[in-house]
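Field log, afternoon session.

UNIT: design team B
ACTIVITY: writing a sequence onto a fixed backbone
BACKBONE:
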């Protein structure tokens, strides 16, 4: 029997709003027939788009939300204007109240994080939530966190990030003990800032039954897939994420330019088209769209603001997995088993 998963969607979030959110939900429903949606947005705008997808309409409850959060709104402004009444807040509230198991929004990241913390609260063992991204690598995929939720971290926060990332990796990659590494400026134990070195000691000396600590990893290890989970703080993680996205676009432009430069290059492209198509698919950001907010009393998935329908569907796919395999229970179990590490 197909398990029913209920997801709340912020239909007004992102650069394109319901014009991509609704078709994205329809694509996800084709892959997961057990999905049911609670859709929040301006009914006059959303209803006609929803009507064009009869199967999705049958599986969806549309709830009117008169307010939408602007993509350029500051978190404080978004809370002031959209608290209790915006499509973003109401989608989060559905998770808090048990009407949905996961919330998905392509809206303003800072506003979504602020509202998530106010509406859902953080877990007792977690001081600050994190955003985890699924990162394509030469070995397959890894999880990188934090990629932008908060700046700075002490040793205990790094350890919490390791546990949260490993919990997600157990579900996404079906690993009993995911391999975890701390991002650093070198692999030697003497390198790095004190908080990172202390976190490394805590992870190395502690007993963590559901993760294996690899040690330090460097920037090039992310793309290599050296570990299953890469842990860093939000400032560094967000720079790494944006750098990788920019490099992928740059490489694509270089390839397009090289393939159209001469007649022989164009002919060569025709012979190698299948290889280039495979490369394009591998680098397609919509395939790995969907950052997971970890450490909250509920699961929230942040879709890229500029995502198309395929990207939104990919974010909903992640939401489905997080609910289907009960991410919250996995995180709670692992946090309870996180040992107290004696001071140095």
């Amino acid at each position: 029997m197909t398990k029913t998963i209920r997801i709340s969607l912020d239909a007004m979030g992102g650069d394109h709003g319901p014009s991509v959110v609704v078709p994205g939900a329809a694509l996800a429903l084709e892959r997961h027939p057990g999905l049911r949606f609670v859709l929040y947005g301006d009914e006059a705008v959303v209803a006609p788009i929803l009507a064009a997808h009869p199967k999705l309409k049958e599986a969806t409850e549309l709830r009117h939300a008169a307010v939408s959060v602007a993509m350029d709104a500051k978190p404080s402004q978004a809370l002031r204007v959209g608290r209790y009444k915006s499509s973003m807040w109401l989608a989060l509230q559905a998770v808090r109240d048990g009407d949905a198991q996961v919330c998905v929004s392509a809206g303003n990241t800072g506003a979504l994080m602020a509202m998530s913390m106010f509406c859902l609260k953080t877990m007792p063992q977690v001081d600050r939530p994190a955003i985890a991204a699924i990162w394509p690598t030469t070995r397959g995929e890894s999880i990188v966190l934090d990629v932008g939720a908060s700046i700075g971290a002490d040793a205990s926060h790094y350890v919490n990030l390791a546990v949260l990332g490993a919990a997600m990796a157990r579900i996404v990659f079906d690993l009993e003990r995911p391999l975890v590494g701390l991002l650093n400026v070198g692999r030697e134990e003497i390198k790095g800032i004190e908080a990172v070195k202390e976190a490394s000691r805590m992870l190395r000396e502690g007993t963590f039954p559901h993760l294996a600590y690899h040690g330090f990893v460097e920037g090039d290890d992310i793309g290599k897939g050296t570990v299953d989970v890469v842990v860093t703080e939000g400032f560094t993680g967000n720079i790494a994420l944006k750098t990788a996205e920019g490099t992928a676009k740059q490489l694509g432009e270089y390839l397009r330019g090289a393939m159209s430069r001469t007649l022989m290059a164009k002919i060569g492209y025709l012979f190698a088209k299948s290889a280039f198509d495979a490369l394009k698919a591998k680098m397609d950001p919509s395939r790995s769209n969907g950052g997971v907010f970890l450490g909250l009393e509920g699961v929230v998935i942040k879709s890229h603001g500029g995502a198309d329908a395929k990207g939104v569907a990919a974010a909903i796919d992640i939401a489905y997995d997080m609910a289907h395999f009960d991410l919250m229970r996995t995180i709670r179990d692992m946090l309870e088993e996180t040992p107290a590490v004696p001071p140095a």
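LOG NOTE: The chain is about 50% helix and 15% strand.
NEXT ACTIVITY: expression trials, pending approval
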